[in-house]
Specification:
The complex is a heterodimer. By secondary structure, chain A is of the alpha/beta class. Chain A has one domain (5-305): Thiamin diphosphate (ThDP)-binding fold, Pyr/PP domains (Rossmann fold, 3-Layer(aba) Sandwich), CATH 3.40.50. Chain A has helices at 5-30, 45-52, 68-73, 78-85, 119-133, 151-162, 182-185, 210-225, 254-261, 265-275, 281-304, and strands at residues 60-62, 139-144, 167-173, 176-177, 180-181, 202-206, 231-236. In chain A, the strands form 2 sheets. In chain A, strands 1-2-3-7-6 form a 5-stranded parallel beta sheet, with helices on both faces. Chain A has a two-stranded antiparallel sheet with strand order 4-5. In chain A, strand 6 (202-206), helix 8 (210-225) and strand 7 (231-236) form a beta-alpha-beta unit. Chain B is built from 12 helices and 14 strands. In chain B, the strands form 3 sheets. A 7-stranded mixed beta sheet of chain B has the order 3-2-4-5-7-6-12, with helices on both faces. The chains are: A alpha/beta, B alpha/beta. At the A-B interface, helix 5 and helix 6 of A face helix 3, helix 4 and helix 5 of B.
Chain lengths: 319, 323
């Protein structure tokens, strides 16, 4: 395990932060306090955490409609995110974007995205800018199994490989595009196989193993920084909740969900950390308690924050 | 000052801006050594090299999306689609991504990109290579829409488009590439959203865009023989639209004809007519008339295509019906 203790603990904190943040959203969405709809990342925490731990603050990511985990793992602020999702003027986007459009340019977060497959072309541009400016930064594109069937994603994979862009494609394969299982939407079992079509490495990892994700993404980031071009990493995972909160999940069975919940990425990682004496049980409890407190504070911040003034409506349509 | 074609004016704008700002990149199909489908980027590959004048795969979605992504990451890309008709396959990256990023992100992103696209009929290119789609773009908050008619305007507006911190859709007309006019050798910028009065007149306002500016000027000469002095207003930009210049002209002439090559139904003329109806109807002493393409795809065969494209006679007839 080449990772420093600090990095490992940070990863543990991040996974718990995503977990508690999403559980809190679940609670408040059910209570009718969150407008619109939310796509929760519960169960997939290891992917965002492992991937973003391989990046620097200046590296850039494009995210998806299920983006909270990516944003938090890239350093997104709990309060600003919570306030945005609650539609408040103090949120990341001043209440203009909501759950699916949170961005933070200072953290290299080029935005969650409401369009499945929307991020690939943008990530190509970010990687092109890094390559052109010789910054050694990389771009990382999160995309789902559904997005892997979009033309934009395939075109982005092609452009990235043709131009050897410093770009890492991280596929989060949670098995379903809303209700449609992977076996009905593509003939391949492993999305990583598609990398061969673009002459780039394609790797399958256990997306519920944060260290496996991190190891694969670290290798891909290294390649990208060295000018060797893009990689495709497929992380097999599962979303515990429906596509959106309120989805009755009639398309999948309880046994399947339970089997995946038994592979919960957080206790798995926690056990490893405790076994290797990187983390004590007491420290683990304290980390969780601190995060729970921070999440509660974020909720309080959001709820105390004002809604946007209608006078702000026309701001920022143009620069 | 020297005589240059519209194409040379665009080329000069790109060259001078790229010399000034190392963050400007050109992206598009065959824009490199080939010099662009119509030749607008000729010579730029030799001068600036392949890192700045980039031939892309045939991948319009990524051309547009990569321009947007590079723009938010600090570059100032100028993307080219060979024909505006190809925007269909890339529309999401333009209207859901580039156009909305700044607003959706609460003002925290800048998307300084220009998307150049030739449009218009007249070269026998048929239904998928001849459309005028400006009304699509002017209906999308977040985009600016520039539609130059003269070589002078083409250069100054392209320079402003490139310097603008918003996504700008820059619509060239392929029949205008060979049109010549006086163009200063030095760099100059024309403010986006300022109309230009191409001809002054007291009896009727003809608002015309792109290639239809020339048809309107021809129509004005014909009308002059009948004692009607037409004022030809070229908005030059449809978003932002210079409402004031249009309204001032109508208040002076008391009559309005709008001419564009886009399909008449739901075209820019509908917006301009509505603007005048809302803001200055009491100044009108005749109904507003619109001249635009019929509601059918652009046909191939020359006699059909010529019949399809609005012309000076159509504009004269529209004016005569109210004057």
């Amino acid at each position: 395990m080449a990772l420093s203790k600090k990095t490992l603990i940070h990863m543990y904190e991040t996974m718990n932060k995503i977990r508690l943040f999403e559980q809190k959203l679940q609670e408040f969405f059910a209570a009718g306090e969150i407008p619109g709809f939310v796509h929760l990342y519960l169960g997939e925490e290891a992917v965002a955490t492992g991937a973003c731990a391989a990046l620097t603050d200046k590296d850039m990511i494009t995210s998806t409609h299920r983006g909270h985990g990516h944003l938090l793992a890239k350093g997104g602020d709990l309060k600003l995110m919570m306030a945005e999702i609650f539609g408040r003027s103090t949120g990341y986007c001043k209440g203009k974007g909501g759950s699916m459009h949170i961005a933070d340019m200072d953290l290299g977060i080029l935005g969650a995205n409401g369009i499945v497959g929307g991020g690939g072309p943008l990530a190509c541009g970010a990687a092109l800018a890094a390559k052109y400016k010789k910054t050694k930064e990389v771009a990382l594109c999160f995309f789902g199994d559904g997005a892997s069937n979009q033309g934009t994603t395939q075109e982005a994979l092609n452009m990235a490989s043709a131009w050897k862009l410093p770009l890492v494609f991280v596929n989060e394969n949670n098995g379903y595009g809303i209700s449609c299982p992977q076996c009905k939407s593509m003939a391949v079992t492993d999305i990583a196989d598609r990398a061969a079509a673009y002459d780039m490495p394609g790797v399958v990892v256990d997306g519920n193993d944060v260290l496996a994700v991190n190891e694969a993404v670290t290798e891909a980031v290294k390649r990208a920084r060295n000018g060797e071009g893009p990689s495709l990493i497929e992380c097999k995972t599962y979303r515990w909740r429906g596509h959106f909160e309120g989805d009755a999940c009639t398309y999948r069975c309880t046994e399947e969900l339970e089997a995946w919940m038994a592979k919960d990425p957080i206790p798995r990682f926690e056990a490893k950390l405790i076994e290797s004496k990187t983390l004590s049980r007491k420290d683990a409890e304290k980390i969780k308690a601190d995060i729970a407190k921070a999440v509660d504070e974020a909720v309080a911040f959001a709820k105390e924050s004002p809604m946007p003034e209608t006078s702000a409506l026309m701001d920022d349509v143009y620069a | 000052m020297s005589e240059k074609t519209y194409l040379q004016a665009l080329n000069e704008a790109l060259r001078q801006e790229m010399e000034r700002d190392g963050n400007i990149l050109i992206l598009g199909e065959d824009v490199g050594r080939f010099g662009g489908c119509f030749g607008v980027t000729q010579g730029l590959f030799d001068q600036f090299g392949e890192d700045r004048v980039k031939d892309t795969p045939i991948t319009e979605s990524v051309i547009v999306g990569a321009a947007a992504g590079a723009a938010v990451a600090g570059l100032r890309p100028v993307a080219e689609l060979m024909f505006v008709d190809f925007i269909g396959v890339a529309m999401d990256q333009l209207f859901n991504q580039a156009a909305k990023m700044r607003f959706m992100f609460g003002g925290k992103a800048k998307v300084p990109m220009t998307l150049r696209m030739p449009q218009g009929a007249g070269i026998g290119a048929a239904a998928q290579h001849s459309q005028s789609l400006e009304s699509w773009f002017m209906n999308i908050p977040g985009l600016k829409v520039v539609i130059p008619s003269t070589p002078y305007d083409a250069k100054g507006l392209l320079i402003s488009a490139i310097r603008d911190d918003n996504p700008v859709v820059f619509l060239e007309h392929k029949l205008l590439y060979g049109v010549s006019g006086e163009v200063p050798d030095e760099s100059y910028a024309i403010e986006l959203g300022k109309a230009d009065i191409k001809r002054e007149g007291a009896d009727v306002t003809i608002v015309a865009t792109s290639q239809m500016v020339y048809a309107a000027l021809q129509a004005a000469e014909k009308l002059k023989a009948d004692g009607i002095e037409a004022e030809v207003v070229d908005p030059r930009c449809l978003q932002p639209l210079d409402s004031a210049t249009i309204l001032d002209s109508v208040k002076k002439t008391h009559a309005l004809v709008v001419a564009h090559e886009a399909v008449k139904f739901g075209g820019p003329g509908a917006e301009i007519a509505a603007l005048v109806a809302e803001e200055a109807v009491e100044y009108l002493d005749a109904p507003i008339k619109r001249v635009g393409a019929p509601f059918c795809p652009v046909p191939f065969s020359p006699p059909l295509e010529q019949y399809y494209i609005p012309n000076a006679d159509n504009i004269v007839a529209a004016v005569k019906s109210i004057r």
